[in-house]
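Please decode residue identities from the backbone states below.
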């Protein structure tokens, strides 16, 4: 069988010693310092450590990747940093890390992207998804831009074709399925079932409901404030005994921090479950004890299985909430803010999916024109 382009490249390359890598790193940092140092009259700035007069011929892309990730870490959430770290070390470094920056071109990088789409999985069982390859190529572009800006490398006009991400049709509960689920939840209500019901009428993400505390709910005003989110993330600290850790952080984006008016139909049930301490987690009614997203996702699966709903996950609740809001004539700007989207376009393109019945009603309006 014919070897892939990058498999052949990898087999033909000679390993480079760590000392050489360290020299390249120091040279890169020296060039960065020189860039920020004003030139003295009568002297010419050099690129010592990066090669004789042509810096991009001596810096390897793997070093540029590592330096870019180190510089970006301060602005990244733990989950984002872990994601980038894994993509770099599992996919980018093995294939492209030993390349000199001068060796990278649009044809090389686009061939790499095509290879990942075709057979990029680490177990050699098929290719990576379009979204994953797109994320990888965005990292590559960012690292190249960082290398160019921080060490005064010549402009590299590399055109990278980003793969298009296929939009999956979201799973929205039908009205009958939603009614069956609500009936099941209300038959033997507890805090976790109340959480699902709350999400059906507010569109909260699973990480947001898991991090929600009773102090975030203003019973007198009838509002709920989203100010934090919970997720289990890989820990890259070798001193940590566990490979993953639960983090409570700020929500997904700046717009995700929001205040949501609660519908009147929920207020009576919420009052029944209000605990003694305002600092208690919503899903447990206790201080210091929470339900993490992975556990809550599994509980939700048992709920929908019990009422005969198939093919749905917890995020289907968010899709369902948005769809019901559109069906009853919700003003889209308000809906976008309640969902915590950066702009109305995201709400329209990603979460709002009108039902066939609504389309028929709209079409029937033409009958009397």
């Amino acid at each position: 069988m014919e070897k892939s382009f990058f498999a052949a490249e990898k087999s033909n390359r000679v390993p480079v010693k760590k000392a050489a890598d360290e020299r390249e790193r120091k040279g890169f940092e020296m060039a960065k310092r020189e860039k920020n140092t004003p030139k003295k009259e009568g002297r010419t700035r050099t690129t010592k450590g990066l090669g004789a007069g042509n810096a991009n011929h001596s810096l390897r892309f793997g070093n540029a990747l590592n330096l870019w990730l180190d510089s970006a870490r301060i602005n990244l959430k733990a989950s984002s940093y872990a994601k980038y770290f894994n993509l770099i070390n599992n996919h980018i470094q093995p294939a492209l890390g030993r390349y000199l920056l001068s060796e990278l071109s649009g044809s090389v990088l686009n061939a790499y992207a095509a290879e990942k789409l075709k057979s990029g999985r680490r177990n050699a069982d098929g290719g990576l998804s379009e979204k994953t390859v797109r994320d990888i190529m965005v990292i590559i572009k960012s690292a190249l831009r960082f290398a160019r800006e921080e060490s005064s490398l010549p402009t590299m006009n590399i055109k990278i074709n980003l793969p298009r991400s296929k939009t999956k049709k979201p799973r929205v509960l039908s009205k009958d399925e939603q009614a069956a689920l609500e009936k099941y939840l209300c038959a033997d209500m507890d805090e976790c079932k109340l959480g699902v019901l709350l999400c059906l009428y507010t569109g909260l993400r699973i990480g947001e409901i898991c991090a929600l505390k009773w102090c975030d709910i203003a019973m007198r005003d009838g509002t709920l404030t989203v100010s934090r989110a919970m997720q289990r993330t890989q820990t890259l600290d070798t001193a940590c005994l566990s490979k993953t850790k639960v983090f409570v952080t700020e929500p997904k984006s700046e717009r995700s921090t929001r205040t949501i008016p609660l519908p009147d139909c929920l207020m009576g049930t919420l009052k029944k479950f209000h605990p003694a301490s305002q600092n208690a987690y919503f899903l447990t009614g206790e201080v210091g004890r929470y339900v993490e997203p992975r556990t809550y996702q599994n509980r939700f699966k048992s709920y929908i299985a019990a009422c005969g709903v198939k093919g749905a996950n917890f995020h289907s609740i968010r899709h369902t909430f948005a769809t019901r809001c559109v069906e009853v004539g919700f003003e889209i700007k308000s809906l976008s803010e309640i969902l915590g989207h950066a702009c109305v376009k995201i709400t329209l393109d990603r979460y709002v999916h009108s039902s066939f019945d609504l389309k028929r009603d709209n079409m029937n309006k033409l009958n009397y024109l």
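Observation: Residues 5-150 form a domain with the DNA polymerase; domain 1 fold (CATH 1.10.150.130).
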